[in-house]
């Protein structure tokens, strides 16, 4: 297959960035400001917006001449962008942006534009390997995320995966990406085999379909596949962003739905998973602390271009702050609510059984099925509210640090 082309101007670190892009299966092309008319067409663009105006302006104009090419704009805390730079299909990343972070931001941008990633296996591609490498599939990826622990994120993830399997009979993968902390196998009783940490010592070219199949378990009662990072927190640092992305490409290629249980934080691994997801289900409880943390995440999501894929799910919705007030505070509609039923949820968790199987007639199970129907019947979900701010989408980004 052809390599996706990246037209870029990144200043001093050009060699490191172009090398990483080539290893990931892209074809980087450096922009020559001395002869802008000779610049080729490209699939994506990357511009360091602190370069000279005679570089930034002509390159952006070239990328948006006729058909707008999705562009990643690299900005610093003091960057001042002219009004002519930035559009709906563009994204922003804060500098410094390491080469591997640039790779996964472009992979995410490529997915959002409906294109396939260069290779399925996640291996750094060689010229020979690219010619016969299978392309990534079309599995629908839903990241379940909460910036605060203890809100029921893993319970939502597990039950949504099982409910999706029940509703569709499709291939569903539950991906435990809460590296170092979470373990969905403590909530869902599956025979543990291995985790991604067991692949960490292998070189990327060995992260093949067969390797990932070896570390996947299956929940016997539902048929849901389970891929976990591991179980030993001491091994968590060995699970890299590249390994997670390789696993995600395999997961998309072999499953209709991929449900990702994410870490409640903003580390590179979590941001990579959020960036490559089709949707993000933000789990929040009707409490001041959880609401405040979720509002902060939504501000970051707006700045990173992730806001349009977010659905808010209120867990334990029958206690605390009113749902209508939560929607007003967050500036987004509430897509689904899940009632609190602590005893039943605890019993199911202790037995390693999802609520939707253990107590299928309970209101709690009905609510969890409704969360899954946000994926299978998206037209029934509330429409996104008009965003509260009409300022240009990079205007607040200088005050926030992110390596994503």
Task: Tell me what you see in this structure.
The protein is of the alpha/beta class and 404 residues long. The chain folds into two domains: 5-118, 3-Layer(aba) Sandwich (Rossmann fold); 140-380, Rossmann fold (3-Layer(aba) Sandwich), CATH 3.40.50. 34% of the residues lie in helices and 16% in strands. It has helices at residues 14-23, 53-63, 99-112, 127-132, 153-168, 209-214, 241-254, 268-275, 288-304, 323-330, 342-350, 355-358, 363-376, and strands spanning 5-9, 27-30, 44-48, 71-75, 91-94, 140-145, 172-177, 216-218, 225-228, 257-262, 279-284, 310-315, 334-338. The protein is globular, with a radius of gyration of 21 Å. It starts with a strand and ends in a 28-residue tail after the last helix. The model is unreliable at 119-137 and 383-404 (pLDDT under 50).
């Amino acid at each position: 297959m052809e390599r996706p082309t990246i037209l870029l101007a990144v200043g001093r670190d050009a060699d490191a960035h172009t090398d990483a892009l080539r290893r990931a299966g892209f074809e980087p092309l450096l922009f020559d400001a001395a002869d802008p008319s000779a610049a080729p067409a490209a699939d994506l663009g990357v511009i360091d917006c602190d370069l000279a105006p005679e570089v930034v302006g002509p390159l952006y104009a070239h990328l948006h001449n006729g058909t707008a090419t999705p562009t990643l704009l690299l900005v610093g805390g003091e960057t001042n962008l002219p009004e002519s730079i930035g559009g709906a299909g563009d994204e922003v990343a804060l500098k410094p942006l390491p080469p591997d972070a640039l790779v996964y931001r472009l992979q995410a941008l490529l997915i959002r534009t409906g294109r396939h990633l260069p290779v399925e296996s996640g291996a750094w591609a060689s010229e020979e390997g690219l010619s016969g490498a299978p392309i990534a599939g079309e599995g629908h990826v839903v990241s379940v995320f909460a910036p605060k622990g203890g809100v029921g994120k893993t319970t939502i993830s597990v039950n949504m995966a099982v409910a999706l399997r029940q509703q569709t009979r499709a291939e569903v993968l539950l991906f435990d990406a809460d590296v170092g902390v979470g373990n969905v196998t403590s909530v869902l009783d599956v025979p543990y085999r291995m985790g991604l940490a067991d692949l960490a010592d292998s070189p990327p070219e060995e992260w093949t379909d067969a390797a990932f199949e070896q570390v996947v378990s299956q929940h016997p009662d539902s048929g849901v596949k389970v891929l976990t990072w591991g179980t030993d927190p001491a091994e968590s640092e060995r699970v890299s962003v590249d390994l997670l992305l390789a696993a995600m490409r395999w997961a998309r290629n072999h499953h209709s739905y991929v449900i990702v249980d994410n870490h409640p934080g903003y580390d590179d691994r979590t941001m990579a998973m959020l960036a490559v997801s089709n949707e993000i289900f933000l789990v929040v409880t009707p409490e001041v602390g959880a609401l405040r943390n979720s509002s902060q995440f939504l501000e970051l999501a707006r700045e990173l271009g992730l806001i349009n894929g977010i659905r808010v799910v209120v867990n334990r919705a029958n206690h605390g702050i009113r749902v209508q007030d939560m929607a007003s505070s967050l500036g987004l509609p509430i897509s689904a609510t899940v009632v609190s039923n602590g005893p039943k949820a605890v019993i199911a968790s202790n037995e390693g059984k999802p609520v939707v199987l253990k107590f299928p007639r309970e209101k709690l199970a009905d609510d969890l099925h409704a969360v899954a129907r946000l994926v299978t019947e998206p037209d029934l979900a509330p429409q996104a509210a008009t965003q509260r701010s009409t300022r240009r989408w990079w205007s607040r980004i200088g005050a926030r640090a992110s390596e994503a």
